[in-house]
Amino acid sequence: MAPVTPGLAAAPVPFRRLVLVELRKVVDTRSGRWLLLSAGLLVGLFEVALLLSVTIQALAVSFEDFAAGAGGITSVFLPVLGILLVTSEWGQRTAMVTFALEPRRIRVVLAKLAVGLVLTLVTVGFMVAVATIGTGVAAVARPGLASWDVGVEGFAGYLVVQALTMTVGFALACLTLSSPAAIVTFFLYWGALPLVLYTLQGLFPAFEDAAPWINFQSALDPVRTWTLDSGEQWGQLLVGGALWIGVPLALGLWRILRAEVK
User: Fold this and answer.
1) Is residue 9 predicted with pLDDT exceeding 60?
2) Are 104 and 36 a contacting pair, CB within 8 Å?
């Protein structure tokens, strides 16, 4: 056996390996598997229902109709998956092992975020695949009624919005380190709070100019339609992103770096 040199530090874990490990954790846990299975099942049921509807009633349907259905369902599940990437580590008390193998906690968090972005790309790929199959079957069942029109700008905007939405859930997970708390907070934060801001904007005209800078959902509208073409829109997007994502993520990272692992 080769002698061990005193004081020789072990080689750091490659970041690529951390990403692969975190990616495997997504399907290794029961919550992750059931979440993926539920999302796939709901998308399948929706696409079959849409296909039967347009076939029986001889309705016109497009590629974007199938894609929108799959995208709408996965947009609910993806942030939850981003939350579980963080909170499952603490809820199942595996953080001690993880941080023992990789003491630099920031690299672990960044690996989890990278996995979330990879899953966002996979979600969009899944959406395109499902929409292609649905449109193809509709074109065979009802020739002339199925359209293959694809809005590339719409898909680009969807990808960016999905990535940002997942990051919001990820940031809240870092802040709470609890699955139930992060999920409830996300739907209140991302669903209810923008409605309150829209209501205030309608009730108080003086708030109308400030609202687009505070309401991140409003700032994302040009991104969804891929019409982000002015300095003011870019400014609103950056300011809103800093408030809605940057602040909770920074506080969450601070908490993770200082938290006592049990």
Assistant:
1) no
2) no
Average pLDDT over residues 52-63: 84
Structure tokens that stand for 44 in this block: 């399948």
CA-to-CA distance for 82 and 26, rounded, in angstroms? 10
Q: What is the DSSP letter of 260?
A: P
Distance of CA 210 to the CA centre of its chain: 27
What is the rounded distance in angstroms from the CA atom of residue 4 to the CA atom of residue 8? Answer: 8
Instruction: Give the single-character DSSP code of 189.
Output: I
Asked if residue 40 lies in contact with residue 9, where contact means CB atoms within 8 angstroms, the answer is: no
Residue 254 confidence class, pLDDT cut points 50, 70, 90: very high
Reply yes or no on whether the pLDDT at 187 is more than 90.
Answer: yes
Residue 12 vs residues 9, 38, 103: alpha-carbon distances, Å: 9, 37, 10
Nearest-angstrom CA–CA distance, 97 and 101: 6
Residue 61's DSSP bridge partners are: 146
Of residues 159, 66, 151, 155, the one with CA closest to residue 121: 159
How far apart (Å, rounded) are the C-alpha atoms in residues 167 and 245?
A: 7
Q: Is 159 strand, coil or helix?
A: helix
* pTM of model > 0.85: yes
Cα distances (angstroms) measured from residue 10 to each of 6, 14, 102? 11, 12, 11
pLDDT in tens, 143-185: 878 888 777 777 888 899 999 999 999 999 999 999 999 999 9
In Å, how far are 34, 154, 198, 230, 235 from 222, measured between CA atoms? 34, 11, 16, 10, 12
The per-residue pLDDT for 7 is 47
**pLDDT band per the 50, 70, 90 thresholds, residue 10:** low
